[in-house]
């Protein structure tokens, strides 16, 4: 999501020497600036809208799932896979999507991804049964895997350095943070006043607007030099990630079943094989120096943990609001809005604080703040009040998310050379989606285990079992966030000037 050679210290931003300028072109001075003038701020608006689209699609169906389950006759496992299919296809193919963006052209990849995403959304809304819905959600994920890394790579080359880059990434990161909650609100409104299928069809007009604006405003950019695809690495990593996520899904029924153990073991072996392949091919799908830089690795892991929070934990919050508290889809969506508002309010404040304090204190403290919110949320009861049991936790959770998500993507992409902007960007997004897929599978396993162990005699005891399961999922998320704070403290180290790009650091080729 190539970069400077790996080291054991924080990544240092480097000026590309004149001899390394692409083609030695006379336009190098313009290239180093990325997109120029007001146009790049319009580009930021388009790319932020794109990020909102792919992130909110991870949660927009959450509110609609109870109605979709009734209409299509989904089992509980199918209900989970409506969410997992999107996140898994998205995350597993993102690295390939990033390389396609680098080699074929970021603008071309972006526009193709938009078209495919719109078509898949239309077909998903027309689904007649659970199998069709899950398949089309997976197809959405496939095209999102083209769209997302191309968008982030275009942002990277449009804002290559300095204060404007910090602002652009703060906006982009904030959209990523609030997108999940926006999906819940929008999904609630569409489900209540239209139909759950509009949670999928709503993408189509957004896609049309983004296509026209992107075609007019975005300039093509791509990596120069020898660009060959790592087909073997792609197949191995897709199979490995798929095996891991499916194994965690099977664990809902039994951790010791041969199928569960086999899938998890196969996933570990295939991911290990992928690392071995990447260390030996000339044009790797994921250059290992991207991961061996410890600061960047820490950012990727933190992104995965927050993916588990936004994709996994928020699903159970949506279910609690509707099934236990009895809120309508719209009110359940609006019930998550305080978290979004808090994140948006704090984003510009944190952006101003970044140059002074650097990202490290925020990326350590943010997960701890969010963990405290989840622990408070785990105290929910069947007859509890939203104002007492839910609202305070959401406000604090919004604070924690803003602290991490504003600087996170900037840190993750610091020091990445233009040749690998797509691959590095893909790793950022893949971390969130795979983290969300695995997190949702693990949280579902914990939830299902608690519910299965409850004694259910009537509706009240059934609701109590649900609440105990949701609480257990929230506690598991809180523990995961604490681990994230430890990871940030250990790996994200170094002077703040090295953790965020400063000055003229990279030269890019736009054409």
UniProtKB/TrEMBL annotation:
This is MFS-type transporter EfpA. The chain crosses the membrane at residues 41-61, 81-98, 110-127, 139-157, 169-188, 200-218, 230-249, 255-277, 298-318, 330-350, 362-378, 390-413, 434-457, 469-492. PANTHER family: BLR6921 PROTEIN, MAJOR FACILITATOR SUPERFAMILY MULTIDRUG TRANSPORTER MFSC. Signal peptide: none annotated. PROSITE patterns: MFS, SUGAR_TRANSPORT_1. InterPro entries: EmrB-like (IPR004638), MFS (IPR011701), MFS_dom (IPR020846), MFS_trans_sf (IPR036259), Sugar_transporter_CS (IPR005829). It is a multi-pass membrane protein. Its main location: membrane. The keyword Transferase does not apply. Residues 1-32 are annotated as: Disordered.
